[in-house]
Amino acid sequence: xxxxxxxxxxxxxxxxxxxxxxxxxxxxxxxxxxxxxxxxxxxxxxxxxxxxxxxxxxxxxxxxxxxxxxxxxxxxxxxxxxxxxxxxxxxxxxxxxxxxxxxxxxxxxxxxxxxxxxxxxxxxxxxxxxxxxxxxxxxxxxxxxxxxxxxxxxxxxxxxxxxxxxxxxxxxxxxxxxxxxxxxxxxxxxxxxxxxxxxxxxxxxxxxxxx
Length: 211
Known about the structure:
It is a single chain. By secondary structure, this protein is mainly β. It has one domain (24-210): Beta Barrel (Porin). 9% of the residues lie in helices and 60% in strands. The chain is built from 1 helix and 12 strands. It has one helix at 2-21; strands at residues 28-42, 48-49, 56-57, 62-74, 79-94, 97-115, 118-137, 144-148, 156-168, 171-180, 195-204, 206-207. The strands form 2 sheets. An 8-stranded antiparallel barrel has the order 1-4-5-6-7-9-10-11. It has a two-stranded antiparallel sheet with strand order 2-3. Strand 9 and strand 10 (171-180) form a beta hairpin. Residues 2-22 have low confidence and may be disordered.
């Protein structure tokens, strides 16, 4: 009896594994929660000149986090459209200054599958800036001061996401570059700051068609 139960469990496991690796059918819906990290940097022209050595410092990459979900529709074996809602903490680092910008992003993306679970993607992403803080460290004392910096920026951002993703057994690893196309500083500022960010996220897809 135990052997029969063991065989049935193995058969069930193999069946689930094969279904997970099977090619997705057209007309299927999926829900994919995602979490990951990002690296962001501005296109700002700001350059800080140190008085001691006269060297300039340009903005550097700032690490952050990404979390959210997307809903996808696979309308053919090679194409899928997805709509996603993501929180992202972006900004930039400049000498002793760190600009931390918190966005909620709504993205519409088209996926082209080029080989099994490997796909290329591109789309359009609308972001809303709901919080922004500037942290400055004192070079002498090492203390830091944080101030709200939201009023210096426009609330809405628009960017173009370009990326590559790999899906296997429900899991998906996604690498995406977002190029901002709107100037973030408000009118009157002489710095045409636009956002740039790289996202690396891991997600798991739930098939809504069979729920």
